[in-house]
Amino acid sequence: MLLTISTTATPATDLGFLLHKHPDRVQEFSQSFGTARVFYPEADESRCTAALMLEVDPVALVRSRGRNSPDFSLGQYVNDRPYAASSLLAVALGDVFRTARAGRCNARPELAEGALPLEIAIPALPCRGGPDLARRLFEPLGWECEALAVPLDENFPEWGDSRYVSLRLRGSLRLADALNHLYVLLPVLDDGKHYWIAPDEVDKLIRAGEGWLAAHPERTLITRRYLGRRRALERTAFARLAEVGDETEEALEPRIEEEKERSVPLNTLRREAVVRTLEELGAASVIDLGCGSGQLIGALLAVPRFARITGVDVSTLALTIAARKLRLERMPDAKRARLTLFQGALTYTDPRFSGYDAAVLMEVVEHVDPPRLAALERVVFGQARPVHVIVTTPNAEYNVHYEFLTGMRHPDHRFEWTREEFTAWATATAELYGYRVTFTPIGEEDPEHGAPTQMGVFTRDH
Amino acid sequence: MTIRIPELSLVVLVGVSGSGKSTFAARHFKPTQVISSDFCRGLVSDDENDQSATQAAFDLLDHIVETRLSRGLLTVVDATSVQFAARQKLIALARKHDVLCDAIVLDVPEEVAIERNAGRPDRDFGAGVVIRQRKDLRRSLGKIGRDGFRRVHVLRGVEEIDNATVSYEKAWTDKKDLTGPFDLIGDIHGCRSELETLLTELGWELTRVDGRAVGAVHPEGRTAVFVGDLVDRGPDSPGVVRLVMGMVAAGTAVCVRGNHEEKLVRALKGAKVKVAHGLEQSLEQFAAEPEEFTREAAAFLDGLISHYQLDEGRLVVAHAGLKEAYHGRASGRVRAFALYGDTTGETDEYGLPVRYPWAQEYRGRAMVVYGHTPTTKPEWINNTICLDTGCVFGGSLTALRYPSREIVSVPAEKVWYEPVKPLSAPGYRDPVTLDIGDVSGTRHIETRFGTRVKVMEENAAAALEVMSRFAVDPRWLVYLPPTMAPPETSKLEGYLEHPHEAFEEFAAQGVAEVVCEEKHMGSRAVAVLARTPEVAAERFGVTDGSAGAVYTRTGRPFFDDLGPLVARLRAACEPLWEALGSDWVALDCELLPWLAKAGELIRVQYAAVGAAAGAALPAATSALEAAAGRGLDVSELLDRARRRQDNAARFREAYARYCWPVNGLEGVRLAPFQILACEGRNTALEPHAWHLDTLSLLDDPIITPTRHLFVDLTSAESREKAVAWWEELTGQGGEGMVVKPAVHQRGRVQPGVKVRGREYLRIIYGPDYTDSLDLLRRRFLGKKRSMALREHALGLEALARLADGDPLWRVHEPVFAVLAMESEPVDPRL
């Protein structure tokens, strides 16, 4: 991977003093993941270019990877790290040009203080967000930014662009600032770090961002990505940035995204509707089939009348998250005794599903392949046979209200039913297994397209 | 005195402390069969006399007793049991597990017991305890016969106890020593003429007295097994009983009791029963017979047992079927189940009881054959089959030949009795009979291919998610291909893998001939194809109109809608139906191009790396060239940069070769190389020459043939030819080849190893792998190779079970295990 810094200041070779690297030498710097070298492809009075080239040792990289390494691409054996300017290059740059980055230059102090005409080129910069994001991050800092997307493969133009951009920055800036911009923004654009993000990263960010980060319009994105989306660290960083700048902490906190504001109430409405229905049905024991991270379970635990609550999911990861979110470890005995969580699949009959007043399949059936629905029906209605079954599923007709939605609401949905389709399925299933079914819309109802969610409440005949 | 106890029973020893129970138990039973309360008390308190631990000790004792009984083990309880309540608890445990319960009372004089206790330092509780226990015993002895034991054996005095011996009685239901072959015959209901026709059809020779059939023998020494309901409704119940009675008496048949015999016997004995459901005909017919015969028939029918275990326990016969937990057990509810089946307590619109579908849940190894519920056609459900085809209602009389599983039927001569409700076709098929217990937890799977495979619980849990969220319908998922290991790493300059090591490995294991098959650089695919949707319904129970599936090595469908691909492939496989004599086939294949399934991987992983390299390396090279132009010493760096640029270009060529545009099915190819199974055959065991020959019958643009070469490992020339072939394949950038023993090998021989090409390996080990071969040669193959062997055994086991016509859960078990094994982490580059 390669990064070049050029200047056309006169004499341009002063760049060597600023970087503390002699233009006529090739210098080597050993890094844990490979070797960095600095050399000058051109060095004359009018123009001088320093190149930082990093040769990554992929074997060393694999070996240094921890079990919880945040950057999974390094775990793959074919990866872009030997070529792309990622956080590895940022670390090398921070290290090799440490003094320059601090703005110190005993030989030419006035040069280090002042702005220079600079040009920085990075041929392969991994950039999640494309050329546009590169511009949004660099332009507010006074750079003229030329960012070109690199195509995935010229032989297969239909594949489109890769996530790399070829970046060229021009501007008149202090060299130390330029280096700090790169030090922070390279990993931000890559959106992945090769090392574990420890709390001292906050210090590094604040130091390198001094004088520019607090005022940057994209500071939220920069902070979040730099800190690897670790919320606790983000909050510390926002607090400290607020100390640096004039703004209050709240103003710096990321806004809750609008999309969330719309979906949260539907989640809540659905959950509330299910809990209310269970109360009306007089259920005391409830099994949540497909409990996910345990949102409904949490709501059920809050209602004492639900004496026995069971959560089932096919994903052991979901169950682990549910256990954590429900604070299972710290739950008082009396409450804990009401709750059971276990792994199960709705296409396998399971004696543990039997013996409940009610079973809930909240937003579950649409994740089952249509040919397997008959198996689910038999497992739930034929074998477990709770007195009541509550099924909620999206109403496909309502999708016209989601402006940017193409296809289905979730990538794992195998189908989404119209009201008619849901009614037909529910009625046939009820008939086959001796249940009666009623239907209730959930969420704001549209006269033409119905409500966003549809709910069927099944009750056993005998 | 000889004490006779059932082979499977709970034996309760009754006697005061010091009466010699433990000594008696040790003399007559295995140490593991005897559970003593003192021992249990010791386990939970470290002190066999700690009375405060009594409750906990008995909880433990109960638990051990229950566990043993549920596993079908004779168990002896060594506790005083002098109190009624204590004995009741044990009798209840025996009933709970449907085993008989006998008591053996050891009655010794008080002073003997006291003296014995006094002589034992660990029994320091004095005479009072014994005196109290003896009082309890005396009180019990009078009425212990009414406790509920099958039999109470009382041994009085030291001498009788010392001289007693114990012998075992076989259970009435135990006819395991009858090994057949059998002709099992369904519900007859007085259809004597049809029975005679059926027996004749089956090759039996009837013996007649006064023109009436009174017996039958089969020249091949077969044994007939009647599943009950010989009588009622039909025209000649006495005639049927006469014939069956004769056969049973002559030892050429056995017969279990049906619910109609049960009721007829009571009626004949003069009990008040409601005369309905065809009993009226039987009573009328028997009234017309000589009294002598009717008495004899009643005695015969009264002596019928409710179920039998035959052929070493591999075959169980009961009139209404029997769940596994009841096989060989004895209790009122076992008998009721065998006679009437398991009912839900509900009735249907005809007023008939709704039956609980016990067969759907049946997981036993024994075949269960029964009748009782008339259907139009017998159908296997989890190794059970109902033979009642409603002869008396105008259906047919059906026999099952065992062990060949052949069905023989003769039609009813007329409708003898109008059915209450029409005979139901087994049209409603259960959509799934898989249970969580079939796959979850740590499992040991026995294969008939030399290995017993252990599946770890956490791997099964991981597989459950993949299976239930992403895999195709389990009815299609009859096989998953095993992983395949590379050969030992090559020591040849510039190579990581080379055919030489593969040939050496097989030759060292005594393989004389191998076949080298070209790897197509597609995605491994299994195609299960039925000739028609009807065949799919018949053979696989898939009734959604689909006629096949094509899935990946993790069981995922290749396309969202498999319909068009399956339709094309079924048409292409037309020549196979006749060649194989089967209406369906399962093929092991590669699906091409790689892009069709792995497009995302290629774009995100491979093309992206290529793009980064393509952008970065030329820039680096020109920067270094400029530096060199300035006289800086960068020659080594420049060499390396140029070489890496060249490697990157080769890398891009390596993946590009396997990508071509696919538009719908246009451009998709299937390359089958092995026929896994067809009706009744586990063809995977056939020699590869047969597979390749048979598959060469396929002539359709969607089929790509697999180029191959047979190699005589004893011939250097033959080997060289194969190496040259491999070099030619891989020199053009081909993925490489698979080397397999030409015929199936037993033991720990790899079923195949893959020898991948030098250029191809760039997309596995990275563009520059050729620069660090020494390091890469240290790769560890052991785990991959061991997994390949185990998964191969599991795959073959699944196919063997499929060929045997095993129920779905039996086939699913090893298939699921392959998926579970695959969640075990292993170096993905191998």
Automatic annotation (TrEMBL), chain A:
Reactions mediated catalytically: small RNA 3'-end nucleotide + S-adenosyl-L-methionine = small RNA 3'-end 2'-O-methylnucleotide + S-adenosyl-L-homocysteine + H(+)
SUPFAM superfamilies referenced in this protein's UniProt entry, alphabetically: S-adenosyl-L-methionine-dependent methyltransferases
Translocase in keyword set: no
Residues annotated as domain Hen1 N-terminal: 1-242
Residue ranges of domain Methyltransferase type in the record: 287-379
Pfam families cross-referenced by the UniProt entry: Hen1_L, Methyltransf_12
Record-annotated membrane-spanning stretches: none
Alphabetic keyword roster: Magnesium, Metal-binding, Methyltransferase, RNA-binding, RNA-mediated gene silencing, S-adenosyl-L-methionine, Transferase
Enzyme Commission numbers on file: 2.1.1.386
Top-level taxon of origin: Bacteria
Family of the protein in this entry: Belongs to the methyltransferase superfamily. HEN1 family.
PANTHER family the record matches: HEN1, SMALL RNA 2'-O-METHYLTRANSFERASE
Protein's recorded name: Small RNA 2'-O-methyltransferase
Source organism per UniProt: Nonomuraea dietziae
Automatic annotation (TrEMBL), chain B:
Cellular component GO terms held in the UniProt record: cytoplasm
Keyword Glycoprotein: no
An annotated Gene Ontology molecular function: kinase activity
Gene3D superfamilies: 3.60.21.10, DNA ligase/mRNA capping enzyme, P-loop containing nucleotide triphosphate hydrolases
Domain Polynucleotide kinase-phosphatase ligase: 462-825
Classification via Pfam families: AAA_33, Metallophos, PNKP_ligase
InterPro entries: Ap4A_hydrolase, Calcineurin-like_PHP, Metallo-depent_PP-like, MPP_PrpE-like, P-loop_NTPase, PNKP_bac, PNKP_ligase_dom
SUPFAM superfamilies the record matches: DNA ligase/mRNA capping enzyme, catalytic domain, Metallo-dependent phosphatases, P-loop containing nucleoside triphosphate hydrolases
Record key words, sorted: Kinase, Transferase
Boundaries of every Calcineurin-like phosphoesterase domain copy: 181-374
PANTHER family: BIS(5'-NUCLEOSYL)-TETRAPHOSPHATASE PRPE [ASYMMETRICAL], METALLOPHOSPHOESTERASE
Name of the protein described by the UniProt record: Polynucleotide kinase-phosphatase
Native species: Nonomuraea dietziae
